[in-house]
Amino acid sequence: MATLQLKSLSMHYSAKDKALSDVSLEVNAGEIVGLIGPSGAGKSTLIRCINRLNNPTGGQVLFKQQDLTNISGSRLRQARRKIAMIFQEYALIERLTVMENVLSGRLGYVSFMSSLLRKFPGKDVQQAYALLDRVGLLEHANKRVDALSGGQRQRVGIARALAQNPELLLIDEPTAALDPRTARQVMRLISEICAEQGLPAIINIHDVNLAKLFVQRIVGLQQGKVVFDGSPAQLNDDV
Ligand code: ADP
Ligand code: ADP
């Protein structure tokens, strides 16, 4: 059974502005999907509809067979714990340390804020160190995020997302703010970690060449519709 199933998903910001029309898509365990398409095609809207940062106007989002389109409150929060996001501009807490940012993913906002005043549980700190080691930031654990480079910040974002023990990663333009070399390093790290953990991911990538390098399945959106779904090699044949 697919981890994620989108069934005829639609999102209309207004009667005229149909950001998504009838999008159907399945993502299986271990699959990394690169979302490509021109600006305004609906890539961000698609990602935001999955964890309900946007409310779809039609269709269904099934995550491990649970319909996320009609839940709210604690059930929605519970589902969101399993669906981690990585953002273009990192969305880190700049004045806190690398370690604290990773722990905020691990503990969730409320437990994190109360632990800040006391002590973080040892087993959570252990796990955070292991993640920082994996993303190559162990020696920077106690630095404030605002002292890091862009590439380092995005690696903190990756570690924070993984600290949630997610079952799905949603990644919105993770390399848009990075130089080409750093962008490739970040994409390589994301694709390696997803492969190691069998973790499915949807990555909105503006740069088609970067998608072809690191992603086995590409979904092309245009004017809110899926116009391509296949391998990088098939994409080359099509254009
Ligand atoms: P992409 O990520 O592919 O650039 P978006 O999902 O951001 O595309 O946008 C898809 C369409 O929805 C565009 O026509 C855009 O103008 C519109 N749109 C996006 N966000 C909003 C919003 N908050 N209100 C109204 N229209 C929006
Ligand atoms: P990465 O190791 O992620 O590829 P860079 O090559 O961009 O990082 O940066 C190398 C070093 O320069 C890092 O150790 C970082 O601390 C420092 N550095 C880069 N950009 C900044 C910045 N904007 N502010 C502070 N330090 C920076």
Automatic annotation (TrEMBL):
Record-linked SUPFAM superfamilies: P-loop containing nucleoside triphosphate hydrolases
Entry keyword Transmembrane: no
InterPro entries (alphabetical): AAA+_ATPase, ABC_transporter-like_ATP-bd, ABC_transporter-like_CS, ABC_transpr_PhnC, MetN_ABC_transporter-like, P-loop_NTPase
GO cellular component, one term: plasma membrane
Superkingdom of source: Bacteria
Pfam families: ABC_tran (PF00005)
Keywords: ATP-binding, Cell membrane, Membrane, Nucleotide-binding, Translocase, Transport
Membrane topology annotation: Peripheral membrane protein
Gene Ontology molecular-function annotations: ABC-type phosphonate transporter activity; ATP binding; ATP hydrolysis activity
Domain ABC transporter: 4-239
Parts of the chain that traverse the membrane: none
Subcellular location: Cell inner membrane
Protein known as: Phosphonate ABC transporter ATP-binding protein
Species: Agarivorans albus MKT 106
